[in-house]
Amino acid sequence: MALSRLIARPLLASYFLANGAQDLKDAPALAQQAAPVTEAVVPVVDNATPENVSVPRDPVLWVRASGAIQIAAGLALATGRFPRMSAAVLGVTLIPSTAARHRFWEATDKDQRRDQLTHFVKNAALAGGLLIAAMDTAGKPGVAWRAQHAAHDARREAALVGAKVKARVH
């Protein structure tokens, strides 16, 4: 593994480990901030799931679930276990977290607006880092490339076998 990945992944994951721990510790207080987001997300999730699946509506539970997911995915990213998937999962958790905590457009105080905007932009930068990490194949071909080339190789092998069979027949 490249030294840059060895250092960068744990650094990127550190924010999510700390944020996830804070979510678990302060879930009731953070649920007040999360309530407008969970109120918007729950119906969408509810419509996307089968009727027999009950979608929780409690913002405290959503905050705790997000914290647990961030800790698990953060640990995976930091240790290099499933780094692309864990980066993608962290990116998904960042969206509602940012929308709940850093609503700069609602701030009335100039200093509060500036602070919230700073955190919002910081989270956007984290999203960019996660996008790079999620797409990083570490120099190895991705699944799409491998599938495309496997199909090409299979066609080439089939043509070679066909030519050998044809040569033996004649």
UniProtKB/TrEMBL annotation:
Q: Which family does it belong to?
A: Belongs to the DoxX family.
- Keyword Transmembrane recorded: yes
Pfam families (UniProt xref): DoxX
UniProt membrane topology term: Multi-pass membrane protein
Q: What is this protein called?
A: DoxX family protein
Location(s), subcellular: Cell membrane
Keywords of this entry? Cell membrane, Membrane, Transmembrane, Transmembrane helix
UniProt main location, coarse: membrane
Top-rank taxon of the source lineage equals Bacteria
